[in-house]
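Revision sheet: structure tokens.
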Amino acid sequence: MLRLRMAELIGNLLVAQSGGPTAVINSSLAGVVQEAGRNPCVSRVYGGRNGILGILNENLADMGRERPETIEALKHTPAAALGTCRYKIDFKKKPEKAARDMDRLFQVFQAHNIRYFLYAGGNDSQDTADKIHLEAVRRGYEMRVIGVPKTIDNDLPHTDHCPGYGSVAKYNACTVMEIAADVSSMATDDGSCCIIEVMGRSAGWIAAGTVLAKREPGSAPHIILLPEIPFNEEVFLARVSETIRALRYCIVVVGEGLKKADGSEYSADKSRLDAFGHPLLSGAADALAEVVYGRLNTKTRTVKLGYAQRSAAHYASATDAAEAAACGEAAVRAAVEGKSGFMVKIIRRGGAKYSSTTGLHSLSDIANVEHLLPRDWVSEDGFMPNEKFIEYARPLIEGEVKVPAEGGLPKFAVLQNKSVPRLLPART
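Predicted:
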């Protein structure tokens, strides 16, 4: 009888996005909205503007008032259509504030009859989802909480990979190929070095993905520096010098979180911290360029891919976009079936041809845990991912998302964002 009652829970669904966007995070949002619209247990679908912060401010959007074609167009639209945030409910460092936040969240949930809460995000977002699930249990408030995986960093545990990763790997590998063609065409006997910086504070998945650009031994990238491998300046300079002597140019890819031998970040600015207390990274590529030019007297340029790598929906992986939507759909199905306190995960099927399905894993095992690149997926010298990584990553970049154009440029979805009437006093 309990199972039947749980399966028949009727109420509204609230979905929100959190953390840094990806090229396909809106595909997950579309999957959620479309699947929820097909389920009679879900009365209305709301979106939290700017993640958990918007929900605290009772800033909700009525997704049911969006046109179906707009929701479908989210599947080729970059950024976070509902807006995002980096807001932490921190019971360890700020217990009183965290308690007030929880009280406010559940006031919002109750006022709007939220019985399903889905949160799309990475490590910190899954931690938030886990806390909300546990609080709902503690309060006896019947609500299902499901995490939707998202992060270009690909560092969530217990999932084969994360939606967003395949697209950033595809775009970055292509960009490395294009930059290498440019640099090699201008290479002279004087030699040159180009250092390309990509995202990845602790995990080197993004940097590693650029190895897919390497079609033959002498092609770029020639060196990939990963946060998991302690940086040895002397060995690095020797490899740069050797590569330039052989090819007249050297393309280096570096993850922004490159570490020194003592574990400290190579380019961390400890005088400035982000919302989660991490030192801001001030430019690994620039720091390396100073070393290369100063020690080798070699012309050196840097390229920082920055936001471009996570917002390049025009060159997203079709595999990635489809899996992102599937994760959103699976989250709704799991919640309606009575599951709570889980994150959707991607499971790679066996066989000669790549395919995947979805499953669930407990949020308590995922929150704030980082999945790093395995050491045996990297060459012995630490400068290049090996065939194990390539076999893993290559299928994830397959296929192209067809993006409609207007005036020669991509046409993205724009939500109407019709507000849900506020029912509570303003947050203090």
